[in-house]
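Model: Ready when you are.
Researcher: Fold this.
Model:
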Amino acid sequence: MPSHTATQVRGSECRDFVSRGPIVQFKLSDIGEGIMEVTVKEWYVKEGDKVSQFDSICEVQSDKASVTITSRYDGVIKKLYYDVDATALVGKPLVDIETESSSGESRSQSEDVVETPAMAREEHTHQEIKGHKTQATPAVRRLAMENNIKLSEVVGTGRDGRILKEDILNFLAKQTGAILPPTLFQEIQTPAPTPAAVAAAAQPASTPAAIKPPPITPKPVFTGKDVTEPLKGFHKAMVKTMTAALKIPHFGYCDEVDLSRLVALRAELRSTTEGRGVKLSYMPFFIKAASLGLLHFPILNASVDEGCQNITYKASHNIGLAMDTSQGLLVPNVKNVQLLSVFEIAQELNRLQTLGAAGQLGTSELTGGTFTLSNIGSIGGTYAKPVILPPEVAIGALGKIQILPRFDAGGQMVRAHIMNVSWSADHRIIDGATMCRFSNLWREYLENPACMVLDLK
Protein backbone atom coordinates (compact mmCIF):
# COMPACT_ATOMS: atom_id res chain seq x y z
CA MET A 1 0.00 0.00 0.00
CA PRO A 2 1.27 3.50 -0.68
CA SER A 3 2.43 5.50 2.29
CA HIS A 4 0.39 8.38 3.70
CA THR A 5 3.07 10.85 2.59
CA ALA A 6 3.01 9.58 -0.99
CA THR A 7 -0.76 9.87 -1.02
CA GLN A 8 -0.49 13.50 0.10
CA VAL A 9 2.02 14.27 -2.66
CA ARG A 10 -0.15 12.74 -5.34
CA GLY A 11 -3.16 14.58 -3.94
CA SER A 12 -1.26 17.86 -4.06
CA GLU A 13 -0.20 17.21 -7.67
CA CYS A 14 -3.80 16.42 -8.56
CA ARG A 15 -5.02 19.68 -7.01
CA ASP A 16 -2.33 21.65 -8.89
CA PHE A 17 -3.38 20.00 -12.13
CA VAL A 18 -7.01 20.84 -11.55
CA SER A 19 -6.26 24.47 -10.68
CA ARG A 20 -4.43 25.02 -13.95
CA GLY A 21 -6.50 25.47 -17.07
CA PRO A 22 -5.69 24.29 -20.62
CA ILE A 23 -2.94 25.95 -22.63
CA VAL A 24 -4.54 27.58 -25.67
CA GLN A 25 -2.89 28.98 -28.75
CA PHE A 26 -3.85 32.61 -29.32
CA LYS A 27 -3.90 32.88 -33.09
CA LEU A 28 -3.55 36.02 -35.16
CA SER A 29 -6.95 36.38 -36.77
CA ASP A 30 -7.80 38.23 -39.98
CA ILE A 31 -7.55 41.97 -39.34
CA GLY A 32 -9.09 42.90 -42.70
CA GLU A 33 -7.91 44.73 -45.82
CA GLY A 34 -6.67 41.40 -47.24
CA ILE A 35 -3.69 41.46 -44.87
CA MET A 36 -2.00 38.05 -44.56
CA GLU A 37 1.11 38.98 -42.58
CA VAL A 38 2.24 41.61 -40.10
CA THR A 39 5.46 42.64 -38.41
CA VAL A 40 5.70 42.35 -34.63
CA LYS A 41 6.85 45.79 -33.48
CA GLU A 42 6.70 45.47 -29.68
CA TRP A 43 5.77 42.91 -27.02
CA TYR A 44 3.93 44.20 -23.97
CA VAL A 45 4.25 40.85 -22.18
CA LYS A 46 6.91 38.18 -21.63
CA GLU A 47 6.76 34.49 -20.83
CA GLY A 48 5.44 33.97 -17.31
CA ASP A 49 3.44 37.21 -17.19
CA LYS A 50 -0.14 37.06 -15.96
CA VAL A 51 -2.70 38.70 -18.29
CA SER A 52 -6.37 39.52 -18.08
CA GLN A 53 -8.97 40.00 -20.76
CA PHE A 54 -8.35 43.08 -22.91
CA ASP A 55 -4.77 43.49 -21.68
CA SER A 56 -2.44 44.54 -24.50
CA ILE A 57 -0.23 41.67 -25.67
CA CYS A 58 1.71 43.18 -28.54
CA GLU A 59 1.70 45.77 -31.29
CA VAL A 60 1.90 44.61 -34.88
CA GLN A 61 2.29 46.61 -38.06
CA SER A 62 0.80 45.76 -41.41
CA ASP A 63 1.26 47.60 -44.67
CA LYS A 64 -1.84 49.62 -43.71
CA ALA A 65 -1.47 50.61 -40.06
CA SER A 66 -0.30 49.65 -36.58
CA VAL A 67 -2.64 47.41 -34.57
CA THR A 68 -2.56 46.47 -30.90
CA ILE A 69 -3.54 42.86 -30.13
CA THR A 70 -5.32 42.30 -26.80
CA SER A 71 -5.97 39.13 -24.81
CA ARG A 72 -9.31 37.37 -24.73
CA TYR A 73 -8.35 35.21 -21.75
CA ASP A 74 -7.28 35.45 -18.14
CA GLY A 75 -4.14 33.41 -17.66
CA VAL A 76 -0.37 33.18 -17.89
CA ILE A 77 1.77 33.67 -20.99
CA LYS A 78 3.63 30.41 -21.64
CA LYS A 79 5.24 31.05 -25.02
CA LEU A 80 5.89 33.88 -27.47
CA TYR A 81 6.09 32.62 -31.04
CA TYR A 82 7.88 35.60 -32.59
CA ASP A 83 10.74 37.95 -31.85
CA VAL A 84 10.50 41.70 -32.34
CA ASP A 85 10.62 42.63 -36.07
CA ALA A 86 9.68 39.07 -37.06
CA THR A 87 6.86 38.44 -39.55
CA ALA A 88 3.70 36.92 -38.06
CA LEU A 89 1.21 35.15 -40.32
CA VAL A 90 -2.57 35.42 -40.07
CA GLY A 91 -4.04 32.17 -38.74
CA LYS A 92 -0.82 31.10 -37.03
CA PRO A 93 -0.23 31.07 -33.24
CA LEU A 94 0.94 34.33 -31.69
CA VAL A 95 1.26 33.27 -28.04
CA ASP A 96 0.35 30.33 -25.81
CA ILE A 97 -1.78 31.23 -22.79
CA GLU A 98 -2.37 28.92 -19.85
CA THR A 99 -5.93 29.87 -19.03
CA GLU A 100 -7.49 29.92 -15.60
CA SER A 101 -9.96 27.06 -15.23
CA SER A 102 -13.39 27.65 -13.71
CA SER A 103 -16.15 25.33 -12.53
CA GLY A 104 -18.58 24.20 -15.19
CA GLU A 105 -16.15 25.09 -17.97
CA SER A 106 -15.36 22.19 -20.25
CA ARG A 107 -14.20 23.82 -23.45
CA SER A 108 -11.60 21.89 -25.35
CA GLN A 109 -8.32 23.33 -26.51
CA SER A 110 -9.32 23.11 -30.16
CA GLU A 111 -12.51 25.09 -29.48
CA ASP A 112 -10.50 27.80 -27.76
CA VAL A 113 -8.10 27.97 -30.67
CA VAL A 114 -10.90 28.46 -33.16
CA GLU A 115 -12.60 31.14 -31.09
CA THR A 116 -9.50 33.18 -30.29
CA PRO A 117 -9.70 36.45 -32.27
CA ALA A 118 -7.32 39.32 -32.81
CA MET A 119 -8.82 42.77 -32.65
CA ALA A 120 -11.14 43.38 -35.58
CA ARG A 121 -10.15 45.81 -38.32
CA GLU A 122 -12.77 48.36 -37.29
CA GLU A 123 -11.96 47.97 -33.58
CA HIS A 124 -8.18 48.15 -33.45
CA THR A 125 -8.28 51.59 -31.82
CA HIS A 126 -10.86 50.51 -29.25
CA GLN A 127 -10.76 48.70 -25.98
CA GLU A 128 -13.89 46.85 -24.93
CA ILE A 129 -14.54 46.76 -21.18
CA LYS A 130 -17.72 45.18 -19.85
CA GLY A 131 -19.49 45.81 -23.14
CA HIS A 132 -18.39 49.45 -23.37
CA LYS A 133 -16.26 50.31 -26.39
CA THR A 134 -13.73 53.07 -25.76
CA GLN A 135 -11.60 54.80 -28.39
CA ALA A 136 -7.93 55.11 -27.49
CA THR A 137 -4.59 54.75 -29.24
CA PRO A 138 -2.19 51.96 -28.23
CA ALA A 139 0.02 54.41 -26.34
CA VAL A 140 -2.94 55.72 -24.34
CA ARG A 141 -4.14 52.21 -23.53
CA ARG A 142 -0.66 51.27 -22.37
CA LEU A 143 -0.42 54.40 -20.20
CA ALA A 144 -3.77 53.52 -18.63
CA MET A 145 -2.70 49.93 -18.05
CA GLU A 146 0.59 50.96 -16.41
CA ASN A 147 -1.32 53.17 -13.98
CA ASN A 148 -4.15 50.67 -13.32
CA ILE A 149 -6.80 52.86 -14.91
CA LYS A 150 -9.94 51.51 -16.54
CA LEU A 151 -10.58 53.39 -19.75
CA SER A 152 -14.32 53.03 -19.21
CA GLU A 153 -13.96 55.42 -16.25
CA VAL A 154 -12.17 58.13 -18.25
CA VAL A 155 -14.05 60.78 -20.23
CA GLY A 156 -12.50 61.29 -23.66
CA THR A 157 -12.15 64.83 -24.97
CA GLY A 158 -10.78 63.94 -28.42
CA ARG A 159 -12.60 63.64 -31.71
CA ASP A 160 -15.62 61.30 -31.48
CA GLY A 161 -14.95 60.75 -27.78
CA ARG A 162 -11.41 59.46 -28.27
CA ILE A 163 -9.41 59.30 -25.03
CA LEU A 164 -6.21 61.36 -25.24
CA LYS A 165 -3.07 61.31 -23.11
CA GLU A 166 -4.25 64.56 -21.53
CA ASP A 167 -7.39 62.78 -20.34
CA ILE A 168 -5.35 60.04 -18.66
CA LEU A 169 -3.04 62.60 -17.02
CA ASN A 170 -5.98 64.68 -15.80
CA PHE A 171 -7.61 61.54 -14.40
CA LEU A 172 -4.42 60.66 -12.55
CA ALA A 173 -4.03 64.19 -11.25
CA LYS A 174 -7.34 63.82 -9.42
CA GLN A 175 -6.09 60.74 -7.60
CA THR A 176 -4.18 61.34 -4.38
CA GLY A 177 -0.54 60.39 -4.60
CA ALA A 178 -0.47 59.90 -8.36
CA ILE A 179 3.12 60.41 -9.52
CA LEU A 180 3.95 60.66 -13.21
CA PRO A 181 7.30 60.92 -14.99
CA PRO A 182 7.89 64.50 -16.17
CA THR A 183 8.49 63.26 -19.72
CA LEU A 184 4.82 62.41 -20.05
CA PHE A 185 3.83 66.01 -19.55
CA GLN A 186 6.37 67.18 -22.11
CA GLU A 187 4.59 65.13 -24.76
CA ILE A 188 1.38 67.14 -24.29
CA GLN A 189 1.00 70.43 -26.12
CA THR A 190 0.75 73.22 -23.58
CA PRO A 191 -2.20 75.63 -23.90
CA ALA A 192 -1.82 79.30 -24.58
CA PRO A 193 -0.42 81.18 -21.58
CA THR A 194 -2.85 83.07 -19.40
CA PRO A 195 -2.32 86.76 -18.58
CA ALA A 196 -1.33 85.77 -15.03
CA ALA A 197 1.24 83.34 -16.36
CA VAL A 198 2.64 85.99 -18.69
CA ALA A 199 2.95 88.45 -15.81
CA ALA A 200 4.66 85.85 -13.64
CA ALA A 201 7.08 85.02 -16.42
CA ALA A 202 8.01 88.69 -16.74
CA GLN A 203 9.20 88.80 -13.12
CA PRO A 204 12.83 87.89 -12.38
CA ALA A 205 13.20 84.27 -11.34
CA SER A 206 15.65 82.89 -8.85
CA THR A 207 16.44 79.89 -11.05
CA PRO A 208 18.27 80.24 -14.35
CA ALA A 209 16.15 80.19 -17.50
CA ALA A 210 15.94 76.95 -19.42
CA ILE A 211 18.40 76.80 -22.28
CA LYS A 212 16.90 75.84 -25.61
CA PRO A 213 18.55 72.64 -26.82
CA PRO A 214 20.45 72.83 -30.10
CA PRO A 215 18.69 71.41 -33.17
CA ILE A 216 19.25 67.72 -33.77
CA THR A 217 21.35 67.06 -36.86
CA PRO A 218 21.42 63.62 -38.46
CA LYS A 219 24.66 61.73 -38.09
CA PRO A 220 26.27 59.97 -41.04
CA VAL A 221 25.92 56.22 -41.07
CA PHE A 222 28.90 54.04 -41.96
CA THR A 223 27.92 50.37 -41.98
CA GLY A 224 31.21 49.05 -43.30
CA LYS A 225 29.45 46.28 -45.21
CA ASP A 226 26.45 45.65 -47.45
CA VAL A 227 23.22 44.95 -45.63
CA THR A 228 20.23 43.14 -47.16
CA GLU A 229 16.90 43.04 -45.41
CA PRO A 230 13.32 42.36 -46.53
CA LEU A 231 10.86 45.16 -47.16
CA LYS A 232 8.25 45.32 -44.41
CA GLY A 233 5.28 47.35 -43.25
CA PHE A 234 4.73 50.69 -44.93
CA HIS A 235 7.74 50.31 -47.23
CA LYS A 236 6.20 47.13 -48.61
CA ALA A 237 2.90 48.96 -49.05
CA MET A 238 4.68 51.68 -51.05
CA VAL A 239 6.02 49.07 -53.46
CA LYS A 240 2.50 47.76 -54.05
CA THR A 241 0.94 51.20 -54.43
CA MET A 242 3.58 52.63 -56.74
CA THR A 243 3.54 49.51 -58.92
CA ALA A 244 -0.19 50.04 -59.41
CA ALA A 245 0.39 53.78 -60.04
CA LEU A 246 2.81 52.94 -62.84
CA LYS A 247 -0.16 51.71 -64.90
CA ILE A 248 -1.74 55.21 -64.83
CA PRO A 249 -0.84 57.63 -67.65
CA HIS A 250 0.08 60.76 -65.69
CA PHE A 251 -0.67 64.24 -67.00
CA GLY A 252 1.35 67.02 -65.39
CA TYR A 253 0.47 70.68 -64.95
CA CYS A 254 2.36 73.38 -63.02
CA ASP A 255 1.52 76.93 -61.98
CA GLU A 256 2.54 79.56 -59.43
CA VAL A 257 0.37 81.14 -56.78
CA ASP A 258 0.81 84.55 -55.13
CA LEU A 259 0.01 83.95 -51.46
CA SER A 260 0.74 87.49 -50.24
CA ARG A 261 -2.84 88.12 -49.05
CA LEU A 262 -3.08 84.66 -47.49
CA VAL A 263 0.17 85.23 -45.61
CA ALA A 264 -1.28 88.41 -44.11
CA LEU A 265 -4.56 86.70 -43.24
CA ARG A 266 -2.83 83.80 -41.50
CA ALA A 267 -0.69 86.19 -39.50
CA GLU A 268 -3.86 87.93 -38.36
CA LEU A 269 -5.61 84.70 -37.35
CA ARG A 270 -2.72 82.85 -35.69
CA SER A 271 -3.12 84.44 -32.27
CA THR A 272 -6.83 83.59 -32.29
CA THR A 273 -6.32 79.93 -33.17
CA GLU A 274 -3.41 79.54 -30.77
CA GLY A 275 -5.65 80.94 -28.06
CA ARG A 276 -7.95 78.01 -28.83
CA GLY A 277 -5.04 75.58 -28.61
CA VAL A 278 -4.70 74.97 -32.36
CA LYS A 279 -1.68 75.66 -34.53
CA LEU A 280 -2.69 77.30 -37.82
CA SER A 281 -0.57 76.55 -40.88
CA TYR A 282 -1.29 77.26 -44.54
CA MET A 283 -2.44 73.69 -45.19
CA PRO A 284 -6.03 74.15 -43.88
CA PHE A 285 -6.51 76.91 -46.48
CA PHE A 286 -4.96 74.78 -49.25
CA ILE A 287 -7.19 71.84 -48.31
CA LYS A 288 -10.39 73.90 -48.05
CA ALA A 289 -9.70 75.65 -51.35
CA ALA A 290 -9.21 72.24 -52.98
CA SER A 291 -12.56 71.05 -51.59
CA LEU A 292 -14.34 74.15 -52.94
CA GLY A 293 -12.76 73.47 -56.32
CA LEU A 294 -13.82 69.82 -56.26
CA LEU A 295 -17.44 70.94 -55.94
CA HIS A 296 -17.07 72.43 -59.42
CA PHE A 297 -14.93 69.61 -60.86
CA PRO A 298 -16.18 66.39 -59.22
CA ILE A 299 -14.31 64.20 -61.71
CA LEU A 300 -11.10 65.04 -59.81
CA ASN A 301 -12.68 63.52 -56.69
CA ALA A 302 -13.51 60.26 -58.42
CA SER A 303 -12.06 56.78 -58.77
CA VAL A 304 -11.96 54.21 -61.56
CA ASP A 305 -12.01 50.43 -61.33
CA GLU A 306 -9.01 48.32 -62.25
CA GLY A 307 -10.10 47.84 -65.83
CA CYS A 308 -11.02 51.53 -66.17
CA GLN A 309 -14.54 50.58 -67.23
CA ASN A 310 -16.47 52.43 -64.52
CA ILE A 311 -15.99 55.73 -62.73
CA THR A 312 -17.29 56.48 -59.25
CA TYR A 313 -17.82 60.09 -58.18
CA LYS A 314 -17.13 60.32 -54.45
CA ALA A 315 -19.60 62.26 -52.31
CA SER A 316 -17.09 62.94 -49.53
CA HIS A 317 -13.97 65.04 -49.94
CA ASN A 318 -11.47 62.96 -47.95
CA ILE A 319 -8.35 64.95 -48.72
CA GLY A 320 -5.06 63.27 -47.93
CA LEU A 321 -1.88 64.94 -46.78
CA ALA A 322 1.40 63.21 -47.65
CA MET A 323 3.32 63.14 -44.37
CA ASP A 324 6.99 62.42 -43.75
CA THR A 325 7.23 60.29 -40.59
CA SER A 326 9.78 58.08 -38.88
CA GLN A 327 7.96 55.11 -40.44
CA GLY A 328 8.26 56.51 -43.94
CA LEU A 329 5.81 58.28 -46.25
CA LEU A 330 2.25 58.06 -44.93
CA VAL A 331 -0.87 59.71 -46.33
CA PRO A 332 -3.56 60.22 -43.68
CA ASN A 333 -6.64 62.07 -44.83
CA VAL A 334 -9.07 64.61 -43.42
CA LYS A 335 -12.56 63.18 -43.75
CA ASN A 336 -15.50 65.17 -45.18
CA VAL A 337 -13.64 68.41 -45.81
CA GLN A 338 -16.70 69.77 -47.63
CA LEU A 339 -18.46 69.93 -44.25
CA LEU A 340 -15.59 71.43 -42.23
CA SER A 341 -14.49 74.98 -41.56
CA VAL A 342 -10.88 76.07 -41.94
CA PHE A 343 -10.50 75.97 -38.16
CA GLU A 344 -11.94 72.44 -37.95
CA ILE A 345 -9.52 71.31 -40.65
CA ALA A 346 -6.65 72.82 -38.65
CA GLN A 347 -7.80 70.90 -35.56
CA GLU A 348 -7.87 67.62 -37.48
CA LEU A 349 -4.45 68.29 -39.03
CA ASN A 350 -3.00 68.91 -35.57
CA ARG A 351 -4.39 65.56 -34.44
CA LEU A 352 -3.07 63.68 -37.48
CA GLN A 353 0.36 65.25 -37.17
CA THR A 354 0.54 64.28 -33.50
CA LEU A 355 -0.41 60.69 -34.32
CA GLY A 356 2.06 60.62 -37.19
CA ALA A 357 4.93 61.85 -35.04
CA ALA A 358 4.13 59.15 -32.47
CA GLY A 359 3.75 56.42 -35.11
CA GLN A 360 0.12 55.85 -34.11
CA LEU A 361 -1.77 56.50 -37.34
CA GLY A 362 -4.40 53.81 -37.72
CA THR A 363 -6.40 52.30 -40.55
CA SER A 364 -9.22 54.83 -40.15
CA GLU A 365 -6.79 57.71 -40.77
CA LEU A 366 -4.87 56.06 -43.62
CA THR A 367 -7.70 54.70 -45.76
CA GLY A 368 -10.61 56.19 -47.68
CA GLY A 369 -8.79 59.11 -49.30
CA THR A 370 -10.27 60.64 -52.46
CA PHE A 371 -7.80 63.45 -53.34
CA THR A 372 -4.27 64.20 -52.13
CA LEU A 373 -2.00 67.18 -51.54
CA SER A 374 1.73 66.72 -50.89
CA ASN A 375 3.44 69.59 -49.11
CA ILE A 376 6.97 68.89 -50.30
CA GLY A 377 7.81 72.55 -49.69
CA SER A 378 7.85 71.95 -45.93
CA ILE A 379 11.16 70.14 -46.52
CA GLY A 380 12.43 72.05 -49.55
CA GLY A 381 12.08 72.36 -53.29
CA THR A 382 9.77 74.30 -55.54
CA TYR A 383 8.56 71.75 -58.09
CA ALA A 384 7.81 68.03 -57.94
CA LYS A 385 6.30 65.30 -60.08
CA PRO A 386 3.73 63.76 -57.72
CA VAL A 387 2.58 60.19 -58.30
CA ILE A 388 -1.15 59.46 -58.13
CA LEU A 389 -2.30 57.15 -55.34
CA PRO A 390 -4.72 54.66 -56.90
CA PRO A 391 -7.70 54.49 -56.96
CA GLU A 392 -7.54 58.31 -56.79
CA VAL A 393 -7.23 60.23 -60.06
CA ALA A 394 -5.40 63.45 -59.08
CA ILE A 395 -2.74 64.75 -56.70
CA GLY A 396 -1.02 68.10 -56.10
CA ALA A 397 2.50 68.86 -54.84
CA LEU A 398 3.09 72.19 -53.10
CA GLY A 399 6.49 73.86 -53.21
CA LYS A 400 8.05 76.12 -50.61
CA ILE A 401 6.88 79.73 -50.30
CA GLN A 402 9.49 82.17 -51.57
CA ILE A 403 9.66 85.96 -51.41
CA LEU A 404 10.24 87.01 -55.01
CA PRO A 405 9.93 90.28 -57.00
CA ARG A 406 6.74 90.63 -59.02
CA PHE A 407 4.95 93.48 -60.77
CA ASP A 408 1.62 94.71 -59.46
CA ALA A 409 -1.32 95.99 -61.54
CA GLY A 410 0.31 99.43 -61.75
CA GLY A 411 3.58 98.08 -63.07
CA GLN A 412 5.44 98.63 -59.80
CA MET A 413 7.81 95.97 -58.51
CA VAL A 414 6.65 94.50 -55.18
CA ARG A 415 7.62 91.75 -52.77
CA ALA A 416 5.39 88.73 -53.32
CA HIS A 417 5.06 85.41 -51.52
CA ILE A 418 5.16 82.90 -54.37
CA MET A 419 4.44 79.18 -54.18
CA ASN A 420 4.64 76.75 -57.08
CA VAL A 421 2.15 73.91 -57.42
CA SER A 422 2.56 70.76 -59.50
CA TRP A 423 -0.50 68.70 -60.40
CA SER A 424 -0.72 65.16 -61.72
CA ALA A 425 -3.94 63.74 -63.13
CA ASP A 426 -5.08 60.43 -64.59
CA HIS A 427 -5.08 61.24 -68.30
CA ARG A 428 -7.44 58.35 -69.08
CA ILE A 429 -10.39 60.31 -67.69
CA ILE A 430 -9.08 63.85 -67.03
CA ASP A 431 -8.03 66.19 -69.82
CA GLY A 432 -5.62 69.08 -69.56
CA ALA A 433 -8.31 71.77 -69.77
CA THR A 434 -10.17 70.36 -66.74
CA MET A 435 -7.00 70.23 -64.66
CA CYS A 436 -6.11 73.77 -65.71
CA ARG A 437 -9.54 75.17 -64.82
CA PHE A 438 -9.50 73.47 -61.42
CA SER A 439 -6.02 74.86 -60.73
CA ASN A 440 -7.12 78.36 -61.73
CA LEU A 441 -10.10 78.22 -59.35
CA TRP A 442 -7.96 76.83 -56.51
CA ARG A 443 -5.39 79.57 -57.11
CA GLU A 444 -8.12 82.26 -57.13
CA TYR A 445 -9.35 81.17 -53.70
CA LEU A 446 -5.83 81.38 -52.27
CA GLU A 447 -4.77 84.63 -53.94
CA ASN A 448 -8.02 86.27 -52.81
CA PRO A 449 -8.92 84.41 -49.61
CA ALA A 450 -11.85 86.76 -49.00
CA CYS A 451 -13.57 85.03 -51.94
CA MET A 452 -13.57 81.80 -49.94
CA VAL A 453 -15.98 83.39 -47.47
CA LEU A 454 -18.62 83.72 -50.18
CA ASP A 455 -18.57 79.98 -50.93
CA LEU A 456 -18.08 78.57 -47.45
CA LYS A 457 -21.02 76.58 -46.10
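Researcher: Now this one.
Model:
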Amino acid sequence: MSQPDTQRTLATWKGVCSEADLVSNSGVVVWLDGAQVALFYLPGAQDQTLYAIDNHDPQSGANVIGRGLVGSIKGDLVVAAPIYKQHYRLHDGQCLEAPEQRLRVWPVRLNAGVVEVSVG
Protein backbone atom coordinates (compact mmCIF):
# COMPACT_ATOMS: atom_id res chain seq x y z
CA MET A 1 0.00 0.00 0.00
CA SER A 2 1.46 3.38 -0.96
CA GLN A 3 1.64 6.33 1.39
CA PRO A 4 -0.34 9.48 0.51
CA ASP A 5 1.66 12.19 -1.23
CA THR A 6 1.93 14.75 1.56
CA GLN A 7 3.51 17.30 -0.80
CA ARG A 8 0.20 17.55 -2.67
CA THR A 9 -2.03 17.63 0.40
CA LEU A 10 -0.14 20.27 2.38
CA ALA A 11 -0.52 23.88 1.32
CA THR A 12 2.52 26.11 1.14
CA TRP A 13 1.77 29.53 2.59
CA LYS A 14 3.68 32.65 1.57
CA GLY A 15 3.55 35.93 3.48
CA VAL A 16 2.63 38.82 1.16
CA CYS A 17 2.00 41.76 3.50
CA SER A 18 1.10 42.63 7.06
CA GLU A 19 -2.43 42.88 8.42
CA ALA A 20 -1.77 46.61 8.92
CA ASP A 21 -1.39 46.99 5.11
CA LEU A 22 -5.01 45.93 4.53
CA VAL A 23 -7.75 48.52 4.04
CA SER A 24 -11.18 47.67 5.44
CA ASN A 25 -13.85 47.09 2.78
CA SER A 26 -11.40 47.79 0.00
CA GLY A 27 -8.64 46.18 -2.02
CA VAL A 28 -4.86 46.26 -1.97
CA VAL A 29 -2.62 44.60 -4.53
CA VAL A 30 0.40 42.41 -3.82
CA TRP A 31 2.94 40.61 -6.00
CA LEU A 32 2.87 36.82 -5.71
CA ASP A 33 5.20 34.66 -7.79
CA GLY A 34 4.77 36.71 -10.97
CA ALA A 35 1.09 37.53 -10.50
CA GLN A 36 -0.70 40.60 -9.21
CA VAL A 37 -3.16 39.51 -6.53
CA ALA A 38 -5.92 41.75 -5.20
CA LEU A 39 -6.61 41.27 -1.49
CA PHE A 40 -9.99 42.31 -0.15
CA TYR A 41 -10.47 42.68 3.61
CA LEU A 42 -14.10 42.66 4.73
CA PRO A 43 -14.09 42.69 8.54
CA GLY A 44 -17.91 42.79 8.76
CA ALA A 45 -18.48 39.73 6.56
CA GLN A 46 -20.18 36.78 8.23
CA ASP A 47 -18.15 33.81 7.04
CA GLN A 48 -14.90 34.84 5.43
CA THR A 49 -13.23 38.22 5.90
CA LEU A 50 -10.22 38.01 3.58
CA TYR A 51 -10.16 37.19 -0.14
CA ALA A 52 -7.37 36.89 -2.72
CA ILE A 53 -8.34 37.22 -6.39
CA ASP A 54 -6.55 37.94 -9.66
CA ASN A 55 -5.96 41.66 -10.22
CA HIS A 56 -6.11 41.30 -14.03
CA ASP A 57 -9.44 42.33 -15.60
CA PRO A 58 -10.02 40.14 -18.67
CA GLN A 59 -12.51 42.60 -20.20
CA SER A 60 -10.24 45.66 -20.25
CA GLY A 61 -6.88 43.88 -20.10
CA ALA A 62 -5.82 46.19 -17.26
CA ASN A 63 -4.61 45.25 -13.78
CA VAL A 64 -7.36 47.08 -11.90
CA ILE A 65 -9.55 44.62 -9.96
CA GLY A 66 -7.97 45.74 -6.66
CA ARG A 67 -9.45 49.20 -7.28
CA GLY A 68 -12.96 47.85 -7.74
CA LEU A 69 -15.90 48.51 -5.45
CA VAL A 70 -16.97 45.71 -3.12
CA GLY A 71 -20.64 44.91 -2.65
CA SER A 72 -23.24 42.19 -2.51
CA ILE A 73 -25.52 40.88 -5.26
CA LYS A 74 -28.17 38.31 -4.31
CA GLY A 75 -26.17 37.35 -1.23
CA ASP A 76 -22.85 36.96 -3.03
CA LEU A 77 -19.91 39.20 -2.12
CA VAL A 78 -18.60 40.70 -5.36
CA VAL A 79 -16.10 43.20 -6.68
CA ALA A 80 -17.15 45.47 -9.57
CA ALA A 81 -14.39 45.87 -12.14
CA PRO A 82 -13.59 49.59 -12.36
CA ILE A 83 -13.62 49.99 -16.14
CA TYR A 84 -16.57 48.02 -17.56
CA LYS A 85 -18.29 47.30 -14.22
CA GLN A 86 -18.74 43.54 -14.53
CA HIS A 87 -19.08 41.78 -11.17
CA TYR A 88 -16.85 38.95 -9.94
CA ARG A 89 -17.73 36.80 -6.93
CA LEU A 90 -14.97 37.02 -4.37
CA HIS A 91 -15.17 33.40 -3.21
CA ASP A 92 -14.72 31.76 -6.63
CA GLY A 93 -13.91 34.53 -9.16
CA GLN A 94 -16.99 33.82 -11.31
CA CYS A 95 -18.20 36.75 -13.46
CA LEU A 96 -21.94 37.27 -12.97
CA GLU A 97 -22.49 38.92 -16.36
CA ALA A 98 -20.30 36.50 -18.36
CA PRO A 99 -20.30 33.09 -16.63
CA GLU A 100 -17.61 31.76 -18.99
CA GLN A 101 -15.16 34.20 -17.37
CA ARG A 102 -13.55 33.50 -14.04
CA LEU A 103 -10.72 35.18 -12.17
CA ARG A 104 -8.20 33.03 -10.35
CA VAL A 105 -8.62 32.91 -6.58
CA TRP A 106 -6.14 31.82 -3.91
CA PRO A 107 -6.68 30.52 -0.39
CA VAL A 108 -5.67 33.31 1.98
CA ARG A 109 -5.37 33.65 5.74
CA LEU A 110 -4.17 35.89 8.56
CA ASN A 111 -1.42 34.31 10.62
CA ALA A 112 -0.03 36.28 13.58
CA GLY A 113 -0.53 39.62 11.84
CA VAL A 114 0.78 38.45 8.45
CA VAL A 115 -1.38 37.93 5.37
CA GLU A 116 -0.49 34.59 3.81
CA VAL A 117 -1.54 33.23 0.42
CA SER A 118 -1.40 29.54 -0.47
CA VAL A 119 0.96 28.86 -3.37
CA GLY A 120 0.75 25.11 -3.37
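Researcher: Key takeaway?
Model: Helices lie at 6-9.
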